[in-house]
Write a structure and sequence with these properties.
The chain is mainly α. It has 15 helices and two strands. The chain starts with 12 loop residues before the first helix and ends with a helix.
Length: 470
């Protein structure tokens, strides 16, 4: 019974308080992300202000990965100089101010563009200001930053939680914490349409900045409680010195290269997770593209298509929340971690294999496959990843995790976005041929993903055996 329920003792109440603060920080951040995603996507494809070329979207997606590297380097610098508390606070507040500033600038410059409905120029200090070009530049930057930053801040929240919770406590608490985030995302997404009617897209974008800025207050409170309570994970400099002595004695001259090749050489699990994330994101991108093509083909009316897609995402958030609260806490207690990892690609391989039967898969089957992949990403994948990271050292939890969740995640999506763009555009395939290629590609990627996951589970089991031996 003790193994089934791991409770915080009386002297652990500060830990519970810190976990609560960070959980609220993450939930508010997710709500802000939902508020920011709708206007950034809509404005990006706006007829009056946005991009009309079909190549603009994959181009923007391609920029997300290199921009994620820039964010990671900035975070690494702040982490070394100030520690994780100020790194989280500064990165969150900067993003908040960026959203608010973009909303104000687009509101001003966008009005100038709409008044003329063409390029409007104005002499400013002897230079020509192209308002339409400035607005497009802001929208492009907004889309890239918003896409990269959600994972960037999300991983910082989980790094904190993984640092103060033991692996045993994580088995119980990680799923409910993630479930709170899903509920916040669902509630925020459900109110987007009403907010747009009242304050408009730019008003919603500015409101998103305020919400995300408010989340930093709870994140800072979590770190304050942890420091006051003396949680060892937050003696930043001391912990770094201990890990560096144990890990990279010969690498003193390259301390700036935290989380680089040397880290992945030292921790085989990180290498395996890096490859696994790339493959899973490749499959996710293929299924997302297949889903969009199929929905557009089956549902011609734009409003009906948007309504159907919205209902699909509502189901995704609802199922993910249910799993995080009720299913995963039991599964993590009853099922080995390695089997949970293998179950993800195995389930997707079964669904993609079903699409092989018949000339073309139905919208229902494509929708179920897409829903399953997103549900895995939103629920089980996050928990099993955190359970692995919680058992690693400080450097792996913060820097290695950031590299995997930012760079590997975006690399898989960006590489597949380019491939899909070339496939759909330059090869000029018919819809039926494109559908067949997508089905074959999804099966191949799912199979390779399964193989990489099996390799990862071997490292997980080896580390577990070594820990038990010690």
């Amino acid at each position: 019974m003790d193994k089934m329920l791991i409770r915080f003792k009386i002297h652990d109440h500060p830990k519970l308080q810190a976990v609560t603060y960070m959980s609220l920080c993450m939930a508010i951040h997710f709500a802000g992300h939902e508020f920011a995603r709708a206007p950034s996507s809509s404005l990006f494809t706006s007829k009056q202000l946005g991009f009309q070329s079909p190549s603009a979207l994959p181009l923007a997606v391609g920029f997300v990965s290199p921009f994620s590297v820039i964010l990671l380097n900035a975070f690494k610098s702040m982490l070394e100089k100030y520690g994780p508390r100020r790194a989280l606070s500064q990165s969150t507040l900067f993003y908040s101010m960026f959203l608010i500033s973009v909303a104000i600038l687009i509101k001003h410059w966008g009005n100038q563009v709409l008044q003329e409905n063409s390029h409007m120029h104005m002499m400013l200090g002897g230079t020509i200001c192209d308002f339409k070009g400035l607005v497009k530049t802001l929208l492009f930057s907004l889309f890239v930053y918003q896409s990269a930053n959600v994972q960037f801040l999300y991983t910082q929240h989980w790094s904190f939680l993984g640092s103060i919770l033991t692996p045993q406590e994580g088995k119980v608490w990680f799923a409910p914490i993630a479930g709170v985030g899903s509920i916040a995302s669902t509630l925020a997404a459900a109110n987007v349409s009403q907010l747009v009617e009242r304050i408009g897209l730019l008003g919603l974008l500015g409101f998103a900045g305020l919400v995300i800025g408010a989340s930093s207050l709870f994140g800072d409170a979590a770190y304050r409680v942890a420091r006051e309570s003396g949680f060892e994970s937050f003696h930043h400099e001391k912990k770094k010195e201990e890990d560096s002595k144990e890990v990279v004695k010969e690498d003193k001259m390259s301390r700036e290269n935290i989380g680089s090749v040397n880290l992945f050489r030292r921790v085989p699990i990180l290498r395996a997770m890096f490859i696994e994330v790339i493959l899973s994101q490749c499959l996710s991108s293929v299924l997302n593209f297949q889903f969009m093509v199929k929905v557009k083909e089956a549902i011609v009316n734009d409003e009906d298509r948007a309504s159907w897609t919205g209902k699909c995402y509502a189901w995704i958030n609802g199922i993910s929340g249910f799993m995080q609260f009720f299913v995963l806490p039991i599964c993590t207690q009853k099922i080995r971690l390695s089997w949970l990892w293998i179950a993800m690609p195995l389930a997707m391989l079964c669904l993609t294999s079903m699409q092989m039967y018949g000339k073309q898969p139905s919208l229902k089957l494509v929708g179920i496959t897409f829903l399953s992949m997103k549900t895995i990403e939103y629920s089980i994948r996050g928990q099993v990843s955190e359970m692995v990271f919680a058992s690693l050292d400080y450097e792996s939890r913060f820097i290695g995790k950031q590299k995997i969740n930012l760079f590997a995640n975006r690399l898989g999506k960006s590489a597949m976005a380019v491939s899909l763009f070339l496939l759909a555009t330059y090869l000029d395939k018919e819809d039926s041929e494109l559908s067949q290629i997508l089905v074959l590609g999804s099966n191949l990627i799912a199979f390779v993903w399964l193989l990489s996951t099996i390799q990862l589970t071997k490292f997980i089991e080896d580390r577990k055996e070594n820990s038990n031996t010690k």
